[in-house]
Amino acid sequence: MDSRHVTFHLTDHSVANHDAFEPKVTTPSGRGVLAVLKQIENNQRISSSEVWHKKRGDGKKVRVLIKASIISLTEIDTVKQSFSAEVWLSAYFKEPLLKGKKNREEVDWADQWDPRIVLFNAVTVDKEEIKHNLILTDMDDIPIVQITRRVQATFKEPMKLANFPFDYQKLTIKLRSRWPIDQVELMKNMGAKDTIRTDSFTASQEWKLYGHLLCDHDVTKKDLSTSDKQFPLYHITMHVKRKSGFYVWNVALLMFLIMSLSFTAFSVSPDKPESRLSVSLTLLLTSVAFKFMISQNLPTISYLTLLDKYVLLCMIFQCLVAVQNALVSAVSNPVAFDRVSMAVLGGLVIFAHLVLGIVIWRKKRKANNVLRKAKKEYLRTGTSIERFFQRTKCSITGFTDGEVTRVQGF
Q1: Which one of 77, 141, 294, 324 has the minimum C-beta count within 10 Å?
Q2: 80 contacts: CB under 8 Å, gap ≥ 6
């Protein structure tokens, strides 16, 4: 079976045209042997837009270095669990076959080997610019190929919303090579810092964007792959923390006020339970309608967020008040029963809010510790890279494990 990789692209031409499958014969006269071989390869393709990806002739594994810069993070959609960003990516790898080439104009980039890096979790790509460059170094006679991509796309990101609206999120751009791990590995360029611009962040009213960017390599899992091979991955992770003020003032506070109004039912005479129930049930139905409105701002998830728990807690309290209003007319001493009920229910409300406050404080402290640790890791790596560059003036390194260790030692 042919081991070549083939990518098909739909065109507007009809594949039913019999002439499109007729072999074309050309003669080598005036065109050269290479031109004839290229024409034969094109004649064997099903369509002019079909791409054949050839393996490297030397059969060696290639290490591709990645440098990432987030130009702008434009939108974070909690309901769709996605985010949009404009990214600048640069991939570097050594190409021995280009020895002797002096500049990029001497290279036919269409015939060169490509690492076949794709945006693995991109939903839509709105704009993409790809450029090739040839870099010559004094330390090595093997040229370095640079492929830069400026991409504006929307990426899928499953969000963890258990602590909503006091949550933080990891927004990850996943790169994957279509070559298996025995042919390509994706690693960080240890000669330059990965950067992110926080001044162009357009969702700053709802989120806080942190200025650190963590990059790490990985491989695909066999049980999640359609083949028995594993492929290299590269993760570019941003951190954002939600600003909870909107939900505290417009949701939690309103629910607290609606719940507190349930105490007004005790102002109605105990011998009129129907009037008390009218007040309690009206407020309960108001809370139910409010809960449905909150659900529209969240994706369909199978667990409760912190805000869901608080809203349900308020509704449970209102149900207890309604039950008390129904039973008050059946007791022998309704006035004493009202006093005891008000004291117990009031104590439960205070205790529940104290517990909830402690839980929120602990979760926020845990999130801050995670973000502080990520920032420290980014600064530590950045400091090593800056010291290495000041000593060597080298901005592209990491092609071997020894080079990576050398940078980390600075």
Answers
A1: 141
A2: 299
Q: Answer whether 195's CB lies under 8 Å from 69's CB.
A: yes
Peptide bond before residue 96 is cis, with ω within 30 degrees of 0 = no
Residue 271 phi/psi, 5° resolution? Answer: -85, 10
Task: Tell me how far CA of residue 313 lies from CA of 223, 244, 351, 353, 356, in angstroms.
Answer: 41, 19, 12, 10, 10
Question: C-alpha distances in angstroms, 290 versus 263, 296, 298, 307, 311?
Answer: 19, 10, 14, 12, 9
Beta bridge partner(s), residue 82: 77, 156
Q: What phi and psi values does residue 24 have, to the nearest 5 degrees?
A: -105, 140
Answer yes or no: is pLDDT of 294 > 50.
yes
Using CA atoms, how far apart are residues 86 and 153, in angstroms rounded to an integer? 7
Average pLDDT rounded to a whole number, residues 354-378: 96
Query: Is it the case that residue 385 has pLDDT exceeding 50?
Result: yes
How many CA atoms, within 13 angstroms, populate the side-chain half-sphere of residue 337?
16
N residues, the chain: 410
State yes or no: pLDDT of 50 exceeds 80: no
Give residue 96's identity as a one-letter amino acid code. Answer: P
Evaluate the CA torsion angle 322, 324, 330, 333 in order and state its sign.
negative
Beta carbons of 303 and 243 less than 8 angstroms apart = no
Query: Measured between alpha carbons, how far is 180 from 213 in angstroms, rounded to an integer?
Result: 26
Q: What is the pLDDT of residues 333-353, one digit of tens each?
A: 989 999 999 999 999 999 999
Q: CB-based contacts of 110: which residues, under 8 Å, 6+ apart?
A: none
What are the φ and ψ backbone dihedral angles of 32, each rounded to 5 degrees? 90, 160
Tell me which residue of 52, 50, 41 sits closest to 13, measured CA to CA.
Answer: 50
Residues contacting residue 390 through CB under 8 Å, at least 6 positions apart: none
Q: How many CB atoms lie within 10 A of CB 269?
A: 10
